[in-house]
Amino acid sequence: MDLCGKSLVVVGGTGEIGRVLVRALAERGARPRVIGRNTVQLEQVARFAERTARLDLRDSFAARRALAEVTDDAGCDGLLLCAGRVAFAETGKLPAPLVRELFEVNLLGAISVIEAALPLIRTPGVVAALTGAVVRTRPARMAHYVAAKAGLSAYLDVLRREHRRRGLLVVDAQPPHVETGFACRAIYGSPPALPAGISASEVAERLLDAISEDQPVVQWPLPATMRAGRLAS
């Protein structure tokens, strides 16, 4: 897909990766529309976006309203999803409300906003999401986060097969640890010692390159410790 002139909705556009992604889209001539949870960051990213709307992914019924706000019901060329929450705890140790929150944000909320966007996406279009290297490495003390992200990855795979004839490109981006402070903002627990991560800019550029080149899965080489399943993404 040629990104120039395309209207693309970025969900999670107020996060560290999301803000970089919005700027990268604008630099490539795209017309980003931003949906995010942080009102202050929405105001700051607005200079790169044509429209903005607030959305908490735990509120699945609000997805259609937020999409209508940023598209003005005129449709769009794609949806890029880079929102998430993380927690660190052994199985059986994470409080049930937080388990529910991880699945509401990372899986159920993600699916809700994707399915709300599908009727709005013009052909050919794109749906892209960041799932992370954890779908391959499955590190300890992250069972619930891994299960949610792996579920999203599986959903994207089926979505790709079901909508291939329609001309919908579905991209599953699986970056390793990214230097954004995401792990340090966990809703529970503390992250393990992490190796030097890649930059948010690298993630954004690789994702946009994949969309431009019609590449369905984006993976990075993993450090030996991550291949052993000991570290988080």
TrEMBL record:
Keywords: Oxidoreductase. It comes from the Bacteria. The keyword Oxidoreductase applies. Transmembrane segments: none annotated. GO terms for cellular component: membrane. InterPro entries: NAD(P)-bd_dom_sf (IPR036291), SDR_fam (IPR002347). GO terms for molecular function: oxidoreductase activity. Belongs to the short-chain dehydrogenases/reductases (SDR) family. This is Short-chain dehydrogenase.
